[in-house]
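Question (not urgent): is this output format expected?
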Amino acid sequence: MQLPLGIFGVAVGTVTLPLVSRTAALGDTSGFRAALAHAIRLIILLTVPAAIGLIVLAQPIISVIYEHGRFTPEATLQTAGALQFYAIGLVAYSAVKVLAPAFYAIDKRYLPMVVSMLSILVNFGLNWFFMFKLQLGHRGLALSTSLVALTNFFLLYVMMRRHAGRLETTELFKTLGKVAVAGAVLAVVCWLALQFLFSRTPLPLWSKVVDLAITIVVGVVTFFGAAFLLRVNEVRDVVDLVRRRR
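Got this back:
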C-alpha cells in the first residue's frame, strides 16, 4: 500500500515545488515563505479528500482491485485495514515531499537528513510497540509509518519556521478547518455509499466498479463544492491546474 500512496504524494509535490525553488534561488525570502505556505495548503486540499476516501472506502477499493482468484474476502478485509492506517499519514507524507526539498533550496540540506535518521529510530520503536504490545499485527506497521510521517512533517515545519520565518500558520489552520468541514461532508457521502451500495452481497465485479466510480465522482464534486462554498482559495488553483492539463 505504501507505493500507491507514495506515488500520490510525489505527484502532488511535483506540482507545487517549482515556484518554491524559484523564489529561493532569486533570494526572495518573503516570496519563498508565501509560496511554501501556499504549497502546503494546496497539499492539504488535495490529500485530505483522498485520505478520507481511502479510509472510508478501503474495503470496496481493495475488493475491486484485488479480490479475484485466490484473493479472498478475508484477505480484502486484512488489506483494507492496512490501507486505512497508511491513509492516516497521507497528508503529512505529501507535505514532507514539499518541505524537505525546500531545505535544499535554502541550503539547509542536512536538516531533512537528521530528521530522517531520527525517524528510523521512532519507526523502530513504534513498530515494536504496536506489533508486540498492542498486538496490531500488520496494521501496526502501517500505523507506525503514518505516525512517523506526521512526526516528520511537524519537525520539518518547526525547523522551516525557525530558518525561513513565519509560514502563514494562521491561514494554514483556517484552511485546515474549512477542509475538515468539507471532508466531513465527503465522509458522510462515502458512508452512505457503504450502507446503500456496497452492503448488497454478493455483487458482481462490474457492479462494484460502477458503484465505486459513482461514489468517487459524487464525493469529489461534493467535497470541492463544499470547499468552494467555504471559500477555500486553493480550489481555484485546482481548477486552473485541471484546465492546463487538458
